[in-house]
Write a structure and sequence with these properties.
This protein has 82 residues and is an alpha+beta fold. The chain has one domain. The chain is 21% helix and 27% strand. It has 2 helices and 4 strands; from the N terminus they run E-E-H-E-E-H. Strands 2-1-3-4 form a 4-stranded antiparallel sheet. The mean pLDDT is 83.
Length: 82
């Protein structure tokens, strides 16, 4: 499925992966929940330094990929429908 065909109204969760010494100790802080489109717009309004460690997830799994972070998150932000 292409990014433009994503179900922008689906529920999504935006989390921040908190830094730790090991991958097993990494905690996730839930920042926001809402529609995929609303969360991507919120991310777009953030400064680049604020985006570090963000992960956007579609918990219901209706669209693939189910998780976006780093480059895939940036690509999703750039593809917001007008």
């Amino acid at each position: 499925m292409m990014v433009m065909d994503f179900p922008w109204t689906e529920r999504a969760t935006l989390v921040r992966i908190l830094k730790s010494d090991t991958a097993d100790q990494r905690a996730k802080e839930v920042l926001f929940e809402g529609s995929l489109l609303d969360l991507v717009k919120r991310i777009r309004s953030m400064r680049a330094t604020e985006r570090h460690g963000l992960r956007l997830t579609l918990p219901d799994g209706h669209a693939r990929p189910h998780t976006f972070q780093a480059e895939s998150l940036s690509a999703l932000v750039e593809s917001i429908p007008e």
